[in-house]
Amino acid sequence: MNALQTILVDRALAVVRAPSISDPAALADALTRGGIRAVELTFTTPGVLELLRNAADAGAVIGAGTVLTAEQARAAIDSGAQFLVTPGLRPSVADIAAARGIPVMMGALTPTEVMDAMDLGAAAVKIFPARAFGPAHFTDLLGPLPDAKLVPSGGVNASNAADFLAHGAVAVTAGTDVVSPASVAASDWDDITSRAQVFVESMGPVPASKGNP
Description:
alpha/beta; TIM Barrel; eight-stranded parallel beta sheet; Bifunctional 4-hydroxy-2-oxoglutarate aldolase/2-dehydro-3-deoxy-phosphogluconate aldolase
């Protein structure tokens, strides 16, 4: 099972935005125990390449986020990233991902941007910031673009995750609602596991037609 398949099966990935992470492997393990196996560590965290290398030891699916350049894409993949995430359209990142056989989730918001991301070979399209238009935006986008794999990011939490999925999202991004900055700072991995479990339960049962991607 590759990184994208894991995300589609779990219907979720976790993005970690923190000024520092003391034990990325323990963090990834905590999220996995809570039911979220795909973990995105971002280039906004200092020393992310070393964190990627260490997190890979947890056996989770580790990706790199906020990837802006081809150089960052290469370095992240060399450090063990199994998927890449961009905040917007980044053709150079898409080129590296394609050349290395790594799925990339590219950021977009409008129909034009979604089509451009798909043309660039994005395995899925991250709709960011999802809070800007809410779940109904996904139904609107999928009307003319039924084959798009859309993943909301930004403002997704346990109270609305199921609504995004009901409106056609193939997965949702769990942010600070699950990976609390305070819990990361305190290395409170049990709290993060509990938050992940609550988030996963909030998504509801997997539809029978979507048990396999």
